[in-house]
Specification:
Elements lengths: L1 E2 H17 L1 H11 L4 H15 L8 H15 L4 H14 L6 E2 L1 H19 L9 H16 L4 H18 L23 H19 L3
Antiparallel strand pairs: 1-2
Length: 212
């Protein structure tokens, strides 16, 4: 089970990770984008972190929806709408829940991914966060279907996400500002995919650390 308390802790950990890696995200984005992914994400997650204490009494859906609104209103560029959509779609499948089973979490991850695909119109191979999230979600769903617990399934999903992230390096970017570079985008890790990987890894750390 992933509890409401763990969801808040996950968001706090992710906000901290983004703050810690802000410069790295900016450098990745400087190579193929606007050099603002780190700055934008840090601004948005600082805002999220500031409101998390006020969300302790809400159900998981309420928490995720509030996070979505905070990100949409404070994160610039493409990241705000994409991450905002991820959390909004996730909130829609967690109504009234104070904890999430492995199957519930599978629905959360799938809904978030589908929202990003719908919003960003990206496909596998386009060198975006979809290349990280899609294999992670597929792996998690398969693991849960085989009867694995949440921690085991998340471990496999994060490994798949990491492999997906590494796979973005040799890709030609086909979406966003990076797509203007054509072949010059080859050899650079996708910044949005990087932050998406950290989002999943942060969740694993929290759930694994508490015996999830």
């Amino acid at each position: 089970m992933v509890t409401q308390v763990q969801v808040i802790e996950w968001l706090q950990v992710f906000a901290s990770v983004i703050g810690h890696h802000k410069e790295e995200l900016t450098e990745l984005d400087a190579a193929i984008g606007d050099a603002d992914h780190g700055i934008n994400m840090d601004r948005g997650w600082k805002k999220v972190n500031s409101i998390l204490p006020s969300l302790e009494g809400k159900d998981i859906s309420g928490i995720l929806k509030t996070v979505s609104m905070a990100l949409i209103s404070s994160v610039g560029g493409a990241s705000g709408p994409l991450y905002g959509t991820w959390f909004l779609k996730a909130s829609a499948v967690t109504a009234g829940k104070q904890e999430l089973t492995a199957m519930d979490l599978s629905e959360v991850l799938k809904a978030g991914l589908n929202g990003i695909i719908e919003r960003g119109k990206a496909q596998l191979g386009d060198k975006t966060m979809v290349d990280v999230l899609s294999p992670a979600v597929g792996t998690f769903q398969q693991a849960v279907g085989e009867g694995k617990d949440t921690v085991s399934a998340l471990n496999l999903a994060v490994t798949a996400a990491q492999q997906g992230l590494q796979a973005t390096v040799p890709m030609v970017a086909k979406k966003g500002r990076a797509s203007y570079l054509g072949d010059r985008s080859i050899g650079h890790q996708d910044p949005g995919g990087t932050s998406a990987y950290w989002m999943l890894r942060s969740l694993l750390e929290v759930v694994e650390g508490s015996g999830g």
